[in-house]
Design brief:
Elements lengths: L4 E2 L4 E2 L2 E6 L10 H17 L3 E7 L4 E6 L6 H19 L17 E4 L4
Antiparallel strand pairs: 1-2, 3-5, 3-6, 4-5
């Protein structure tokens, strides 16, 4: 399979390395919460027809290497993935994140392009 993808009038390979953290870098992404975050990211990425190359959930941040079609902006993709994941995790693990009114993802987002070899 080619590493390039096709749309009706486009050949593309938009690969992004995205890193995001919980607010104040709280160390809450562990055990069941980390598993749920990973499952949510995979599910919501598949719904948007984005291909996850690599996903790594650390205790205080998430690394995501993903192919995003050019018809979806990076900010739109991350808004959906972070928003839905936050709501789902907060509802499921309310006891673990007690005292936090909303799941604390930082508004800061870093991403970059990955080059082709």
């Amino acid at each position: 399979m080619s590493r390039f993808h096709k749309l009706s009038q486009t050949i593309w390979h938009c690969q992004y390395h995205i890193i995001w953290t919980p607010k104040y870098r709280f160390k809450i992404l562990k055990n069941e919460i980390a598993e749920e975050v990973e499952a949510c990211i995979r599910t919501f990425s598949a719904q948007q027809k984005c291909e996850i190359i690599e996903l790594n959930v650390q205790i205080d941040h998430v690394h995501l290497l993903v192919l995003i079609p050019p018809k979806i902006s990076v900010s739109q993709f991350m808004g959906i993935v972070k928003g839905r994941t936050a709501i789902r995790v907060l509802n499921k693990f309310r006891v673990h994140v007690q005292g936090i009114k909303k799941f604390p993802y930082s508004s800061q987002l870093k991403f970059g392009f990955c080059s082709l070899k």
